[in-house]
Amino acid sequence: MSGGTHKSLFKGSALKQASIGAGVAALVAVGLLVFGWQSNSIAASDGAEAQALSKSDDAALIRVAEAATGADQQIDAKQRGQIERIVREYLLKNPELLLEMQTELERRMEVAQKARMKTALADNADSLFRSERAPIVGNKDGDVTVVEFFDYNCGFCRRAIAGMSKLVDNDKNVKVVFKEFPILSKGSEEAAKVALAAEKQGKYWELHRALLETPGRADLAKGLRLAKKFGLDIDKLKGDMESDEVKAEIASVQKLADAMGIRGTPHFIIGDKVIPGAPEDLYDQLKARIKEVRQNGCQVC
After folding, report:
1. CA dist., res. 16 & res. 135, Å (int)
2. Looking at the whole model, is its pTM more than 0.70?
3. Tens digit of each residue's pLDDT (9 = 90 or more) over 213-235
């Protein structure tokens, strides 16, 4: 089971509602086409039309709906009412069609998303894998790069840190690039600035882990408290937090996320493979994706 914190994604109930809405729209389109085909007899026999429609092949119906969706049909109120009765009767007799439409829509959305992501990976490869500002943990010359977009106040990012730590400890040939993506609160941005400033004192990984592993809301106060614990120069840290370099890194990650269509955290990119959210078996999935990239190479890295 996977999870993630999102600003705006078509998932869960929202996707189901969109799917059902699209299904109803498609059926209305079918009604429009049926009306176009049978306009001479529809007024005389609504029941007959509904019966004929209910007996039609479902696959053919879906193809008709696709063809009809873009059709420009001019109908009056009486005709619309007749069509709506046909559609309603068909839906009541065949409610499973909505589930079939939902499944098909989800499949098409997934295919489209993968295609968009593939293009986005190629277009943004330098910013993803070779940014000079982004914090890097593990082997900087590693043969596979793992990129994570995250927010310190994201509960799923906190769940993911165990898998990421295990990966860094166990695979000495992996390069991990962290993308500070504070989308949840002002405190998230404050924590991100503290972490990026800590990198200048060689303590990014320590502070990164502590911000995610330590209970409580991540913000400036928590970041500074942890920084003191790790012996950082607090005056220098505060100055670096407000530097143009730190601000530019946060802004560039936001721009990159927008270009990639990434709206939630965590989001992992392994070569040209993607893991959205934080599945319970994250470490195993990361290992599997890394193995695939090592075996097959990466076309965009």
Report:
1. 38
2. no
3. 999 999 999 999 999 999 999 99
